[in-house]
Amino acid sequence: MKKKVVLLLLMLGAGVLVFSLKSCGFFDPESFRLFFSFLAVHPFISPLLFCAAYVLLAVFLIPTLPLNLGAGVLWGATLGSLFSILGTMLASVASFSIARYLFQGRFRQRFSRGMWAAILQDVENNDWKVIAFTRLNPAFPTGLLNYCYGVTSIPLGKYTWTTLLFIAPATVVIAYLGSFLGDFYLRGRSQEIMNRVLVISMAVAVLALFKYMANRHGLAKAAASHSGIPLVEENR
Question: With DSSP H G I counted as helix, E B as strand and the rest as coil, what are the percentages for the chain, rounded to 5?
Fold first, then answer.
C-alpha cells in the first residue's frame, strides 16, 4: 500500500511538472537545444539530469529520439550510447513498475484488445522471446510496450535484462548517428565522420542479422500473430 501511495505521488508530481514544462514551451526544438547547452556547461550533473529527463518523457509517452541524438552530439558515440542506454533502461523499468504496481487493472483493460491482447498472450506462451523480438522491431512503440509488459506475469529481472540486451543495438546506432551529426555540423572532423559511417553501417548490419535470426527461429510469428502487422517471409 505504501509503495502504491509513493508511486502515485511521484506520478502526480511528474504530471504537474510535464504540464508546466509544456506550458512554458520546453518541448519545442529550441528548448531541447537550450537543455543540451545547459548540460554542456554542467558536466558533473548532466548525466543525472539527462536520465531524469529521459524517464520523464518516456513515462508520459513523449518521443525520446531528440534525447538519444543529443546524447551522441554532446558526449560522443561511446558515452552518448552509455547514457542513452541507461536512460532507456530507467524509463523502461519506471513505466513497467507503474503498470504493474499502480494501475495494473486500468492498463490490463487498455491492452485487452487487438495487437496488445495478442502480445500479452504471446508473452505467456513464449516468455522473454516476445520481448526480444518487439525490442528489435521498430513497428512496435517502445513507450507503450513498457506499460504492456507491466501487466504480464514476466518477472521484473527477466524483463530488465531482456530489454537491456535487445534495445541496446538500436540505441547505440542512434547515439552514433548523433555523434556523426555533431562531427559533421559542429566539429568538421572528416576522418571521424568516415569512422562513424563505418560503425553505423556495421551496427545496422548487426540489427538486420538479429531480426533475421528472430524470423528464422519463429520469434516474429510468435510475437506478431493476430497483431495485424504483416510479416515478410524469407525466400528459401
Answer: 80, 0, 20
